[in-house]
């Protein structure tokens, strides 16, 4: 979840002051000025963005001050993250639920704002998507037309679909001609063990390192899905917010009455269902009996995550590296062909590694792993 501004680290507070100074200096610019905040998963980007947006809205709804009377929005192209921000809004008197939107409705309304904040900007569409009523070339370009200042949070290692595929070159091209200031956040603030975070970084790039044994973090490998699930239930009883997650390697269909299941050895649990409530998926107690995906867990902090690595994630003994088979990845909507032809096997492999990176960095206090493929499972156990 997102902490209060008072809970920010000294480094976060310094960047907060930098962003607020940038906003004040450029709030009347005719062409949108851009502050880009970059960093890996778990480095506190969303917490900082939330704190800055809250400070801006407090000024906007007060009399006097440089930002009084400004109209500002925070956009995020992820349903569950939007719900987290709605919860934040319900706890602050100067925030409103309407302050937070998904990008497409904001763009299609064509109403200008003074300052637009974008969380998880790598999830913005980078191609037309008529199904979601977006027909222009990319969402970042359209948002730049509607604001004096754009503050965006960006992590190019958290891209999950080809239709939202961004590269450094694409970002540079889109921001050409705009005043741009950048800041990079480093240091893992979610995972309580730097050694465990480094192990996950290596794993999400295909490299296998010996498992560390930190005193303040549990990093465990399981021989079957059942003991993994038992461990998660135990951690949930003791600490709360422990959930089972999985890569999208198991069949599922959206909006069906019957559940679709994840099979992990002897464990068989249903996938997460479409969440029509305003509460984030992981904050609902019954979801302890489901398996979460990037669609329900991205942006949410768990205490413990039990991650099932599905059939697309395997191991090559000759190279001692993780291998990826995109053909076995069941989320085929992630791989819908792009009209510009940017959908190589390397792009698809990178997306699956990004999904792994997101899932493995959800737990603050612990991570449990079970690999469906025997070769990978045995190698993990050997580590």
UniProtKB/TrEMBL annotation:
The cross-references to Gene3D superfamilies, in alphabetical order and at most eight, read:
P-loop containing nucleotide triphosphate hydrolases (3.40.50.300)
UniProt xrefs under InterPro entries: P-loop_NTPase, SLFN_3-like_DNA/RNA_helicase
Residue intervals of the Schlafen group 3-like DNA/RNA helicase domain: 33-372
Position of the signal peptide:
none
Which SUPFAM superfamilies does this chain map to? P-loop containing nucleoside triphosphate hydrolases
- The domain of life for this entry's organism is Bacteria
Give the protein's recorded name. Answer: Schlafen group 3-like DNA/RNA helicase domain-containing protein
Q: Which organism is it from?
A: Lacticaseibacillus camelliae DSM 22697 = JCM 13995
